[in-house]
Design brief:
The complex is a heterodimer. Chain A is an alpha+beta fold. Chain A is built from eleven helices and 18 strands. The chains are: A alpha+beta, B mainly alpha.
C-alpha cells in the first residue's frame, strides 16, 4: 500500500524531502503536488488528519496549517520516511484494520489507494475509514478509475458508506511531463510528436511544464471548470455531513509564503528551514543526502531579512566527476559584492565560514541576498539535472553570535 | 725265418721308442678342471680320453708283440758271422736243451702276462667305452643345460630389455609428471604470489577506502550533527518564544480578570 500505487515513483519520491519547513511557495503550482494542494485547501487549520497509504509523506505540507498528521502504510520504510518528513505519527498497518479508536480524525485522506482494489475490499476500507472519522468528518481521495470501474461506479460505492459524495474528474486534463511519457493503459493516447518534444525537455524545462500544468489545474479548480467525466483520474470527497465547496473549502495560503518563527537560533538565523528565506529557482528540491541539503546548478540565490549579518557559515559538498583533474571554482557574493572565491578539488563536506565586512552590512538596509556561482556542472547517472554543489546549514550570525 | 721275425720285433721296438717322446708331452699337458669352467672340463676330459686311448694303443701294440711270441722259446741266433757264428749257434743249441726247464717256465709266465694284459686291455676298452658314452651323455646334458641356460639367458635378457624399456618409459612418465608437477607448482606459486600481491593491494586499497569512508562518514556525521544542532536550537528558540507568548497572554488575562474584579467591586459598592 502506498499513496499512488506506483512503487517506482514512490521510490523516486522517497529521496525528496516533503518536510513542510523546506517547502518552496512556487511548488504550489507543481502538478505533482496538485492533490496535496487540493487537500491543503480543504482541511481546517489545526485539525486531525489521517493519511491512509501515506507513502513518503506527500501531505507533510499540511503542517504549515498546524494540522496534526498521522500516517499509515503497509511498508515500514514508507512509514519511517513519512515520519522523517514531519508526520506527527506513522504506523505500519494494513488499511483494513486501522490502529485507531472510533471517531479520531477530522479528515481521512488517500492518494491512489482506492481503485486498485476490488469492490469488496474497497467497501471494507471505506467502512474502516468511516469508523475513525469524527462525526461530520470528511474523507478526501484521489482515485484512478479503470475501464471497468468508472467514476459513477465509484460514486455508487461511496454512497453505500457515506451519505454525501462529490466527485470531479481531473488528471487526464493536466498531467506532469513524467505522466505523459509513462501513461497508464487507460489514459488517452497522445500525438507522437508531442511526446517526442516532451522527451527532449531538460529537467528545468520539464519543471516549467509541470508548473504550467499545475497552474492550469489550479485555475480550472478555482474557476470551477467542469471537465468531461471520461477522464479517468478523479478527486472525491465524501462525508456523512453535507459537503462544502469541492475546492478551497478552507483556503488559507498565508503560511505557504511565510512560516514565521522558523529558522531562528540563539546566535542568528538558519536559512535552510526559515520561512523568511526565499530560495530562487537556481536551487533544486531539498534532498536527503543525508543530511537534508539543496543541490544547485551553476548559479543560485537566497534572499532573507536580518538585522545584523556579521558572518555566514555553511556546509557544502559536490559529486562532480574528476574533481582532482578539474577542480570546481566557486564564488560567493553578498548583495552583489564578492565575499569569497575558492577552488574545490576534494570530495567530502567543506565547512565554510565567511566574515562579512562592516561596509557590506551598512549598505544592506536589512535585506540580503547571497549568490553562489559554480564554474561547471554535471549530470549524475539516472539524473538529468545539471548539478554543481549541495549546500546545507546556511547560518547567518550577528555580532552577538560571534562573541 | 727266425731271423726275419727277430728283425721285425726289433723294428717294432724301435718304432715304439721313437713314438714315446711324441706321446709324453700330450700326457703331461694341463691338468683337467683347473679353470673350473665347463669348456675347460670338456677339453680336459677329451685330453684325458686321448691320453687313455694312446695308452691303450701302446698297450695293444705291446700285446701285438707278446701275441707273436708268448708261446715260443727265444730263437737261437747270432750276430756274428762265419765260423764264430756257427760256433756260437752250436753252443747255444747245446745249451738250449739244458735251459729248457726255466725257459718253459718263462714261456708260461709270458703266456700268463700276455693273457692278463689282453684281459686288462679288453676291460679297459670296455671301461673307456662306458666312460666315453657317459662323457657323451654328460656332454649332451651339458649342451642341453647350456641351451636351456642360453634360452633362459635370452629370456632374461629379453625380460631385462623389456623391463629396461618399461623402466625407461616409467622414468620418462615420472619425469614428465615431475616436470608437470613442477610446472603446476610454479604456476601455483606464481599465482599465489600474484594473489598475495593482489590481496595485499586489495587490503591496502580497502584500508585506504575504509579510511576515506571513515573520514567521509565522520565528515557527514559532523554536518548531520550540525544540522541537528541547528534544528534543536531553532526548536528551543521557538519554544522560548511560545512560552513567552503564553506568559504574556496569561499576564494579560490576569490583568483583565483584575480589571473585571475591580469593576465588579466598584459596581457592588456603588
Amino acid at each position: 500500500m502506498n499513496s499512488n500505487g506506483d512503487a517506482g515513483k514512490q521510490q523516486y519520491l522517497s529521496d525528496e524531502v516533503f518536510d513542510a519547513r523546506y517547502f518552496k511557495a512556487l511548488d504550489r503550482f507543481d502538478i505533482r503536488l496538485a492533490p496535496t494542494m487540493w487537500v491543503y485547501d480543504n482541511v481546517r487549520a489545526s485539525s486531525q488528519v489521517l493519511h491512509v497509504g501515506c507513502g513518503a509523506g506527500m501531505l507533510a505540507l499540511l503542517k504549515r496549517k498546524g494540522v496534526t498528521i498521522t500516517g499509515v502504510d503497509a511498508s515500514k520504510e514508507f512509514a519511517l520516511t513519512a515520519r522523517r518528513n514531519g508526520y506527527d505519527a506513522t504506523f505500519q498497518a494494513g488499511p483494513n484494520s486501522l490502529p485507531f479508536p472510533d471517531q479520531t480524525f477530522d479528515y481521512v485522506v488517500s492518494f491512489g489507494l482506492l481503485g486498485a482494489v476490488t469492490e469488496a475490499e474497497e467497501q471494507l476500507l471505506l467502512a474502516e475509514m468511516r469508523r475513525v472519522l469524527r462525526s461530520g468528518g470528511v474523507s478526501l481521495h484521489s482515485i484512478e478509475c479503470t475501464d471497468t470501474v468508472t467514476d459513477k461506479d465509484q460514486t455508487a460505492r461511496f454512497l453505500k458508506v457515506f451519505q454525501h459524495v462529490a466527485i470531479e474528474p481531473r488528471y487526464g486534463f493536466c498531467l506532469s511531463a513524467e505522466d505523459f511519457l509513462e501513461p497508464d493503459a487507460h489514459e488517452p493516447k497522445l500525438e507522437a510528436d508531442f511526446l517526442d518534444y516532451l522527451r527532449g525537455l531538460s529537467f528545468k524545462e520539464r519543471r516549467a511544464f509541470d508548473l504550467a500544468m499545475g497552474y492550469v489545474f489550479s485555475r480550472a479548480s478555482d474557476f470551477g471548470v467542469s471537465l468531461p467525466s471520461s477522464i479517468p483520474h478523479v478527486l472525491l470527497k465524501a462525508s456523512d455531513a453535507p459537503l462544502g465547496p469541492f475546492y478551497n473549502e478552507h483556503r488559507d495560503r498565508r503560511a505557504l509564503f511565510s512560516f514565521p518563527g522558523t529558522g531562528k537560533t540563539e546566535n542568528g538565523l538558519c536559512l535552510d528551514r526559515s520561512g523568511e528565506a526565499v530560495f530562487d529557482d537556481g536551487w533544486f528540491q531539498p534532498t536527503l543526502l543525508p543530511p537534508v541539503a539543496r543541490w544547485m546548478g551553476k548559479q543560485a540565490r537566497v534572499r532573507f531579512r536580518a538585522d545584523d549579518v556579521a558572518a555566514i557559515a555553511l556546509d557544502l559538498t559536490t559529486q562532480l566527476p574528476d574533481l582532482a583533474e578539474q577542480p570546481l571554482g566557486l564564488e560567493i557574493s553578498l548583495n552583489g559584492a564578492k565575499l569569497c572565491a575558492f577552488t574545490l578539488y576534494k570530495y567530502g563536506w567543506l565547512q565554510l565560514w565567511m566574515s562579512v565586512p562592516e561596509a557590506f552590512r551598512s549598505k544592506s538596509n536589512g535585506e540580503f541576498e547571497i549568490e553562489l556561482r559554480a564554474n561547471r556542472t554535471a549530470q549524475r547517472p539516472a539524473d538529468d539535472r545539471e548539478l554543481s554543489i549541495a549546500v546545507c546549514n546556511i547560518e547567518i550570525r550577528g555580532q552577538n553570535g560571534l562573541r | 725265418m727266425i731271423d726275419e721275425e727277430v728283425e721285425t720285433v726289433l723294428r717294432e721296438i724301435r718304432e715304439r721308442v721313437i713314438s714315446r717322446p711324441l706321446a709324453e708331452p700330450t700326457s703331461s699337458g694341463s691338468s683337467p678342471g683347473t679353470n673350473g669352467n665347463q669348456n675347460s672340463q670338456l677339453v680336459a676330459t677329451a685330453e684325458t680320453s686321448d691320453r687313455i686311448s694312446a695308452a691303450l694303443a701302446r698297450l695293444n701294440a705291446h700285446l701285438t708283440t707278446t701275441a707273436r711270441a708268448w708261446d715260443r722259446l727265444p730263437p737261437v741266433v747270432s750276430n756274428r758271422s762265419g765260423t764264430a757264428a756257427r760256433i756260437e749257434v752250436w753252443i747255444k743249441a747245446r745249451l738250449k736243451v739244458f735251459s729248457r726247464w726255466f725257459t718253459w717256465e718263462q714261456v708260461n709266465f709270458n703266456a700268463a702276462v700276455h693273457h692278463a694284459l689282453g684281459e686288462t686291455l679288453k676291460a679297459l676298452t670296455e671301461q673307456g667305452a662306458v666312460i666315453r658314452s657317459e662323457n657323451e651323455a654328460l656332454r649332451v646334458e651339458i649342451q642341453t643345460q647350456r641351451d636351456e641356460i642360453d634360452t633362459l639367458r635370452a629370456q632374461l635378457q629379453a625380460d631385462a630389455a623389456n623391463r629396461k624399456i618399461d623402466l625407461q618409459n616409467q622414468q620418462r612418465e615420472t619425469n614428465a609428471l615431475l616436470a608437470e608437477s613442477r610446472g603446476e607448482m610454479e604456476t601455483i606459486r606464481i599465482k599465489s604470489e600474484d594473489q598475495g600481491a593482489e590481496l595485499r593491494a586489495k587490503i591496502e586499497t580497502s584500508k585506504t577506502e575504509v579510511a576515506e569512508r571513515a573520514d567521509r562518514i565522520e565528515n557527514e556525521q559532523r554536518v548531520c550533527f550540525q544540522q541537528l544542532s541547528l534544528e534543536t536550537n531553532e526548536m528551543a528558540v521557538s519554544n522560548d518564544r511560545a512560552q513567552q507568548r503564553v506568559r504574556t497572554l496569561l499576564e494579560e488575562m490576569n490583568e483583565r480578570i483584575k480589571h473585571l474584579e475591580d469593576s465588579e467591586n466598584r459596581k457592588s459598592r456603588s
